[in-house]
Amino acid sequence: MDLRRRQWFLLAILLSAALLIELQLSTAATAPENLVFQVRSKFAGKREKDLGALRAHDVHRHSRLLSAIDLPLGGDSQPESIGLYFAKIGLGTPSRDFHVQVDTGSDILWVNCAGCIRCPRKSDLVELTPYDADASSTAKSVSCSDNFCSYVNQRSECHSGSTCQYVILYGDGSSTNGYLVRDVVHLDLVTGNRQTGSTNGTIIFGCGSKQSGQLGESQAAVDGIMGFGQSNSSFISQLASQGKVKRSFAHCLDNNNGGGIFVIGEVVSPKVKTTPMLSKSAHYSVNLNAIEVGNSVLKLSSDAFDSGDDKGVIIDSGTTLVYLPDAVYNPLMNQILASHQELNLHTVQDSFTCFHYIDKLDRFPTVTFQFDKSVSLAVYPREYLFQVREDTWCFGWQNGGLQTKGGASLTILGDMALSNKLVVYDIENQVIGWTNHNCSGGIQVKDEETGAIYTVGAHNLSWSSSLAITKLLTLVSFLIPFFCNIAL
Q1: Residue 256's pLDDT band (boundaries 50, 70, 90)?
Q2: Are 435 and 272 a contacting pair, CB within 8 Å?
Q3: What is the pLDDT of residues 236-252, one digit of tens each?
Q4: Which residues form the Peptidase A1 domain (predicted)?
Q5: Alpha carbons 437 and 263: distance in angstroms, whole number
Q6: Distance of alpha carbon 105 from alpha carbon 98, whole angstroms
Q7: Are strands 96-103 and 84-91 parallel, antiparallel or unpaired?
Q8: Is 476 exposed, middle or buried (0-12, 13-18, 19+ CB in 10 A)?
Q9: SS3 sequence, the chain?
């Protein structure tokens, strides 16, 4: 009996030691490098009622892949200068830099391609770079049978096995068409305070083979347009579907110094007040309740901003000016000019109302747009007036001009109204918010992996000043008869 007891005793010691080793291994599995081992053991043999925990774990793990992206920005919103904002991204392998206009009013990314018809060959703004799929080892064509093709091509002639074509028509009558390509996009990942590293993802974009309208002109040409709309085909939606980013982005357009900030990710400072997006709109549309000019509220009809399917006001970084229906534009201008009866107005290029003025701009009233949830957006005189010479100013407000397919006038707040403000687009929660901000400073974003808060600074990509000079001389030439009349 004594021998048998000793054997059982030794066996118990061995079993205890084995359990201790297993416990130590299990404890060590909590270290980051052993995460995969821990996941496998944690959910092994779970019953159906525990599957929700597995999904919750996946959501949590994927959230650690989400990071903030810093898009270097250049340009301004001055009609007499550049009149657009553009960012720099890398495409292909090896990576090549492309300058693309950032546009919240459209969806897909497209760039001019080698061999394009009516694509600009040179620009007064930046050096153009045509994309060449044959020069990228990671480029692949997208066929009509690809699910993505249905997002951009509903034409019946797109047959399985053929390359998917795209056509985009813009509100100003311009168009681009070509075919879809899948390739690597290279971006700047926020890694610290005013610091970035490199990251990449795979994206489908348009390879432009033919342009028309202003897209075929060379004066202010860039390599393409990067759409930040809400649809599945947009730049941000594609990155979000891969777990690269959140469906949230923000911009701060610096109209004083040029350039500014454009980030993808969660902005934590400064805080913004938000207003709901209109659910049935294809654009970033919000409900406008009233317009104040100084201390006076404009008397507008209840359907002043009703344009059919596109009700409300469209927030669009791809538009330079502010476009208003006649029923809004006329009372707005009348109220602004009520205290400036002395001004001699003159129309330039059939679009701009200009005048001779040498006094301080703060004599003009601030225009404030009032939205749902008590959110307001103030547009100051220095933002809605632009200077074409030392003693001559023009209004940036535009009456009509941009319309729906049904002919209704659209209300669009472009860069002129959005400048010098941090504007946040939270697609996941379907809200848009903004606050006045010094865009030459920084904003703070959250690193979803570590929870760290990092500062993202402003950029101002270099561009040629010859474009601004050319546009300014053009405006001045139209104003010469006006100046002569004043002299007389």
Answers
A1: confident
A2: yes
A3: 999 999 888 999 999 99
A4: 85-435
A5: 15
A6: 20
A7: antiparallel
A8: middle
A9: CHHHHHHHHHHHHHHHHHHHHHHHHHHHCCCHHHHHHHHHHHHCCCCHHHHHHHHHHHHHHHHCCCCCEECCEEEECCCCCCCEEEEEEEECCCCEEEEEEEECCCCCEEEEEEEEECCCCCCCCCCCCCECHHHCCCCEECECCCCCHHHHCCCCCCCCCCECEEEEECCCCCEEEEEEEEEEEEEEEEEECCEEEEEEEEEEEEEEEEEEHHHHCCCCCCCEEEECCCCCCCHHHHHHHCCCCCCEEEEEECCCCCCEEEEECCEEECCCEEEEECCCCCCCEECEEEEEECCEECCCCCCCCCCCCCCCEEECCCCCCEEECHHHHHHHHHHHHCCCCCCCCEEECCCEEEEECCCCHHHCCCEEEEEHHHEEEEECHHHHEEEEECCEEEECEEECCCECCCCCECCEECHHHHCCEEEEEECCCCEEEEEECCCCCEEEEECCCCCCEEEEECECCCCCCHHHHHHHHHHHHHHHHHHHHHHC
Q: How confident is the model at residue 483 (pLDDT cuts 50, 70, 90)?
A: very low
Neighbours of 335 (CB within 10 A): 19
> 57-61, 203-207, 398-402 — which is least confidently predicted?
57-61
Quick one: which of 419, 465, 460, 470 has its CA closest to 86?
460
Work out the pLDDT band at 155, boundaries 50, 70, 90.
low
Tell me which residues are annotated as active site.
Answer: 103, 316
How do residues 315-371 score in pLDDT, each as one tens digit? Answer: 999 888 999 999 999 999 999 999 899 999 999 887 899 999 999 999 999 999 999
If one counts every other C-beta atom within 10 angstroms of the C-beta of residue 343, the result is: 13
